[in-house]
Design goal:
- The protein is about 75% helix and about 0% strand.
- The chain has one domain (about 15-90).
- It is an all-alpha fold and about 90 residues long.
- The chain has 2 helices and no strands.
- It starts with 16 loop residues before the first helix and ends with a helix.
- It has helices spanning about 15-25, 35-90.
């Protein structure tokens, strides 16, 4: 999503006359056509942003699970060694 401090990239978008008129009607002091277009794009892309965030969250959870599995495997090896030592002492 666009933030106020984010550097903007100039681009050209071709609009139909009725789209341009509608944007001119919606624009005004403190609300430029560019700002309206950016807002519309953000709203259109919102599901993508959410999916991207969810995917990042899922990736972190998978990495944490892999770390935990690795630790459990290490613990299992240690436990097996402890049981083996106990068997040899008995």
């Amino acid at each position: 999503m666009t933030t106020k401090k984010e550097k903007l990239i100039r681009t050209t978008v071709q609009l139909s006359p009725h789209q341009h008129r509608a944007l001119e009607t919606l624009s005004g002091p403190g609300k430029s056509i560019s700002a309206i277009v950016r807002t519309a794009i953000d709203e259109y892309l919102d599901p993508y942003y959410e999916q991207s965030y969810d995917n990042q969250k899922l990736d972190r959870m998978i990495e944490e699970a892999k770390d935990q599995i690795g630790k459990l495997q290490e613990d299992a090896i240690e436990m097996r060694d402890i049981f083996e030592d106990l068997r040899n002492k008995v």
